[in-house]
Design goal:
The complex is a heterodimer of chains A (514) and B (316). Chain A is 42% helix and 8% strand. With 514 residues, chain A is mainly alpha-helical. Chain A has a two-stranded antiparallel ribbon with strand order 1-2. In chain A, a hairpin with a 5-residue loop joins strand 6 and strand 7. By secondary structure, chain B is of the alpha/beta class. Chain B has two domains: 1-41, no CATH class; 44-314, 3-Layer(aba) Sandwich (Rossmann fold), CATH 3.40.50. Chain B is built from 13 helices and 14 strands. In chain B, the strands form four sheets. An eight-stranded mixed sheet of chain B has the order 4-3-2-7-10-13-1-14, sandwiched between helices. In chain B, helix 5 runs parallel beside helix 7 (135-141). Classes of the chains: A mainly alpha (514), B alpha/beta (316).
């Protein structure tokens, strides 16, 4: 039984990772999965706490995370060791690629252990004020973002390259496989590099990220002090230090292997592989004082606080930030987004909306929304437009930074307004007939004048960007959507502007004499 | 109810089947009188069927043309270019009538088609077009494959030898390689080109649809139609869109007709009269639709309806 535990754990870790992968793959049309595709993000209590604190409102979708937190009171931070897909990835790469370096001297990790709490306090303070640095570090958001932005487009590229090859092997005239329009994201390389660095830190110490950086881990650690599933060591312990070496998070001090740092223990039960069977896990009352805790001096805590607050203020004062948002008129937010300032504080940048967007219209920002808005979604019409009968981004946003809107509401929400560059427009600049923008517009917001030149009716334009996307002018389009600042509701209007009759639901029998 | 009725062999189908059975030996040896024999079945070049359900209209429209058997032979592969360009519901008349598509697919299979594929290069996202128009479900229920031209590997670059402005174009490979190509348009008002008819529907077999506007849309429509002439045009005028075209939603009109022809220009010339010219207020004359005129000039068909053997039939 005990021998099976490591295998069981590895299997569950792998399953958990592939389940996340499966959920991400299914984060696409028609979005009919029974389980919420953003399940992992909803189960993340760190995201739950921070988004609720910054939004100052209860967010229903993130509440399951608190259930996980309750379980941590019982089992300690089991999530890291058994279910975290990021932890699973790190464990995998620590084994196969980034093996821990052997040292002659002992690695004194006390400063690092302290750093973890320092970063946590720093990001908490900064986050509550303006700068959402912790979302960049939250492991669930991080791995989802990495998979979507860095790995999903190359996967499609490989698929598209293989399709014609596979096709040539198939008998002719059998079913046809189509390539998929390539999804693309500008920040992919950056996100990939960040991910590789995190994995590469395993060379210094295995599970380096989990031990010393992960903010979700810190949250679990704090709660884990009160865990009731505890490790007990009998007097049989021969001080072989095998458990000390094996512990993936270094929770067992070398000086005294009969103790353990319960706040760091991820309940992986690796230390049960003890030859005299001296180690056991049993339920017991929580201890009052943790063993070998981190000494967080008052100076250290205050320093982290001050550092977080000052950086947040600097970001607020930075022109990059103050110029973004309302003033960056090319920063079009997805339909139903919260007002800009709230949006950047609630959006975790997980990338779910980028994945679900059927037209690859949603892109990750780099600095367009300032540092505080790093990796948040924006609509880039030239790459893709907002589909008329799609509200998937609002459906799956785990923190409700993009609100769910029914079609009737979504179709009347103005994200931006299109403007025509008459010097470059084919119809205005030449005598050719074009009007692609007119024929593509879903809202009758681009009309043609008597010479068949397009004119935008601002009061109907939602800023979906289909006109900019389909404009046949090379390079930048001749019709460009600019953000309308605050998303506002348009007046509902009869769909038939020259006819009061609604579109009939059933074909009326009204034959026309030929 | 209707489906079960359709499954029984009607007299017409039996005779057709018997005729095919009798004709097969004739096919194998090239008898001199075969051509005249085949021709005897077709009484007209343009048939307009009125009054009846979608499948009745199609049956009625095809019979005077010589039946579907004239176009689809046993074991052939059929490609239908439908109009599924927009994410609109069937009653909005921006996409094809599902019942008619279903009837058309079934008719192809009844005459021995090996495989029927329905294609469109949609303008809106294909997933939304296919599901909202109900045509994916319809086509798959009728046993056809339905494909969207969103992947570039579906296309093949060809030279437009007869083209006046368009020199090369990427066309759906399946259309080029098909044995039988059926154009299945729905007539709609279209602000840029005045009307969307059969020939405009074939813009949806090209890859770079928007680029054609830059070259000169009307001539490009005619030029694209020279690449692969459809063997048959079945025009879905059961309900047409008369305003806010081609995407709609707008005013619709229930014409209740199905037009079948092998001559795409004639079919378009006929269908143009469904719409009123915005300036004169009178029905469109065929020459007033520039691309129809251009196609006629290219010799793609007959624009003058008085020179076409036209027949109007009642389905029910």
């Amino acid at each position: 039984m005990k021998r099976a535990i490591p295998y069981l754990r590895r299997t569950i870790q792998a399953l958990s990772f592939f389940f996340l992968l499966y959920l991400i793959i299914r984060t696409a049309f028609p979005l009919e999965l029974k389980i919420p595709v953003d399940l992992y993000l909803r189960l993340d209590p760190f995201i739950g706490i921070i988004t609720i604190l910054t939004k100052k409102e209860v967010i229903l979708r993130v509440l399951p995370g608190f259930g996980v937190l309750l379980l941590v009171f019982i089992f300690g931070n089991f999530f890291c060791g058994w279910f975290c897909p990021m932890g699973a990835t790190i464990d995998f790469f620590d084994r196969v690629l980034f093996r821990e370096k052997k040292r002659s001297k002992e690695f004194n990790d006390q400063p690092f252990r302290r750093l973890r709490y320092g970063i946590f306090i720093f990001s908490l303070v900064a986050g509550l004020m303006a700068f959402q640095v912790m979302y960049l570090l939250d492991p669930i958001s991080l791995i989802t973002r990495t998979l979507v932005i860095a790995f999903y487009p190359p996967a499609i590229f490989v698929f598209n390259t293989l399709v014609p090859e596979v096709q040539s092997f198939l008998p002719k005239n059998s079913s046809f496989l189509s390539t998929i329009p390539m999804p693309m994201f500008k920040v992919n390389l950056l996100i990939f590099l960040f991910f590789v660095v995190i994995l590469g830190l395993g060379v210094v110490k295995k599970r380096f990220w989990c031990r010393y950086l992960c903010p979700l881990g810190v949250l679990f650690s704090i709660v884990s002090r009160f865990r009731i599933l505890r490790r007990f060591v009998t007097e049989d312990c021969p001080h072989c230090l095998r458990c000390v070496k094996e512990c993936p998070v270094g929770a067992i001090p070398e000086a005294n292997p009969q103790e353990y740092r319960q706040q760091d223990c991820i309940s992986c039960f690796k230390c049960l592989e003890c030859s005299p069977e001296a180690v056991s896990f049993r339920f017991g009352l929580p201890r009052r004082r943790p063993v070998n805790g981190v000494s967080l001096s008052r100076r250290y805590v205050l320093g982290s606080l001050a550092f977080g607050a000052v950086s947040a203020l600097m970001i607020k004062a930075n022109p990059l930030q103050s110029e973004s948002g309302l003033k960056n008129n090319r920063l079009i937010r997805p339909p139903g987004s919260l007002p800009e300032e709230k949006f950047v504080s609630v959006c975790t940048g997980c990338g779910e909306c980028l994945k679900v967007c059927p037209n690859n219209a949603l892109q990750s920002t780099f600095l367009e929304a300032g540092l505080a808005g790093l990796y948040t979604p924006r609509l880039v019409p030239r790459i893709g437009y907002c589909e008329e009968f799609c509200n998937f981004c609002g459906k799956i946003c785990p923190t409700e930074a993009i609100r769910y809107l029914p079609f009737e509401e979504k179709r009347l929400l103005q994200m931006g307004v299109a403007h025509i560059d008459k010097t470059r427009c084919i119809a205005w600049d030449t005598d050719k007939i074009c009007l692609v923008c007119n024929e593509q517009c879903s809202y009758h917001a681009v009309i043609g004048d008597d010479k068949k030149r397009p004119i935008v009716k601002e009061e109907k334009c939602t800023g979906c960007g289909i006109c900019e996307n389909k404009c046949p002018v090379d390079g930048e389009a001749a019709i460009i959507v600019y953000a309308s600042g605050v998303q506002k509701k348009l007046k509902p209007e009869d769909v038939n502007n020259d006819n009061k009759n609604e579109v009939p639901a059933n074909p009326a029998k009204k034959g026309k004499s030929a | 109810m209707e489906q079960s009725r359709n499954k029984r062999i009607t007299r017409r189908q039996f005779i057709k089947g018997a005729a095919v059975a009798a004709g097969i030996p004739l096919l194998s040896s090239k008898l001199p009188f075969y051509g005249s024999l085949a021709h005897a079945a077709e009484e007209s070049d343009l048939v307009i069927a009125k009054n009846g359900s979608a499948s009745q209209l199609l049956q009625a429209a095809m019979a005077p043309l010589g039946g579907m058997g004239r176009f689809v032979k046993n074991g052939q592969r059929v490609v239908i270019k439908a109009n599924i360009a927009w994410a609109r519901t069937p009653e909005q008349a921006c996409t094809n009538n599902p019942d008619l598509l279903s009837a058309l697919i079934k008719m192809c299979y009844d005459t021995g088609a090996k495989r029927v594929a329905v294609w469109d290069h949609t303008c809106d996202n294909y997933q939304f077009c296919f599901s909202r128009s109900g045509l994916k479900e319809t086509a798959q229920k009728a046993g056809a494959d339905i494909f969207s031209g969103h992947g570039r590997n579906s296309y093949k670059q060809v030279e437009v030898q007869k083209g006046k402005k368009l020199k090369t174009v990427e066309i759906l490979r399946d259309v080029l390689e098909s044995d039988v190509f059926i154009n299945f348009p729905i007539p709609k008002q279209h602000f840029a080109t005045e009307l969307t008819l059969g020939m405009k529907n074939l813009i949806g077999i090209t890859w770079d649809m928007e680029q054609l506007h830059k070259i000169g849309l009307h001539q490009c429509i005619a030029d694209v139609n020279t690449v692969r002439k459809p063997d048959l045009v079945v025009m879905d005028a059961i309900r047409i869109l008369t305003t806010n075209g081609p995407k709609g939603p707008g005013k619709t009109e229930d014409i209740g007709e199905v037009i079948a022809s092998a001559d795409i220009v004639a079919a378009d010339a006929y269908a143009a009269a469904f719409f009123k010219h915005p300036k004169t207020g009178k029905p469109f004359k065929p020459e007033e639709v520039q691309f129809v005129k251009n196609a006629y000039d290219l010799g793609l068909g007959q624009i003058n309806l008085s020179k076409v053997r036209m027949k109007k039939v009642t389905a029910a």
